Amino acid sequence: MIDIRTAQDIADADLCAAMNDAFSDYAVPMQLTEDAFATMMRQRGLDRAASFVAVVEGSIAAIWLVSHRDDRAYLIASGTRPVFRSRGLARQLAEACLAELRRRGVRSFQTEVMDGNDIAAGLYFGLGMTVARWLDCATIPAPTATQRASADIVTVPWDAIVDAAPRLRSWGPTWQNSDRSLAAIPDRLTCLLLRDASGPTGYLAAITATGTVAQIAVRADRRRRGLGRSLISAAQATFGATPLRVFNVQADDAGFAAFLHALGAIPQIGQRELVMPLRPSR
């Protein structure tokens, strides 16, 4: 018997274990500690009442974990544990979740899917999702020599950056890297800021535990002057031997692609951002 239910009464430890098992054989396997799982869900805004699990024979067989903010929703993670696949569980979870979101009046639903994950992509396209943009991911190797941060770069809390950030960017970050998502985990961020007499000229925000650069931007009138490289060098000085990861960069930004290439960044498997409009049921 298959029981489709919300995740309201499911412990983090159980959701984390199910997610780790579901992602264990992916092209990029995910194995999170409970603390890392809790941070991931806090960052992305897990809404337990809008999230669903499939329970088979007393075990969580599949998950569909969702965030709901204002009139938009986001699929944080979905997966089916290997032993329970080919039973249509993902489709059942999707239909239950989307019905709940429509009931709430949500108007837009989005997620990302990894390139090459054709099974998940097929499900999402079958639901009516379309590609909004292509996203690049890369790793910037740790430097072979010790890096020194520029004296002009200061470490600040995220709330010292957030108001200026939209004016410095050329494109909006994906859901998990958005200003609101970063504001949910200020204690888990390393934020670097450059200023001149006119205000902020560049910034970088990274996840402290992993060295993942969630956002980096330089003001348009100060680009191509080495400020971005200075921010990366300062981050490398902070993270030491930990390579920096750049996740979900808008792929059609040729300038940023050239910047990553100049840094010696190693391309990783990219993603597609998918969206679909929802028509509220009420």
From TrEMBL:
Cross-referenced CDD domains: NAT_SF
Cellular component annotations (GO), alphabetically ordered: ribosome
Keywords annotated in UniProt: Acyltransferase, Membrane, Ribonucleoprotein, Ribosomal protein, Transferase, Transmembrane, Transmembrane helix
Pfam families, A to Z: Acetyltransf_1
Residues annotated as domain N-acetyltransferase: 2-146
GO terms assigned for molecular function: acyltransferase activity, transferring groups other than amino-acyl groups
Segment forming the signal sequence: none
InterPro entries xrefs: Acyl_CoA_acyltransferase, GNAT_dom, YpeA/RimI_acetyltransf
Stretches that traverse the bilayer: 49-67
Name of protein: Ribosomal protein S18 acetylase RimI
Species annotation: Jannaschia pohangensis
Upper classification of the organism: Bacteria, Pseudomonadati, Pseudomonadota, Alphaproteobacteria, Rhodobacterales
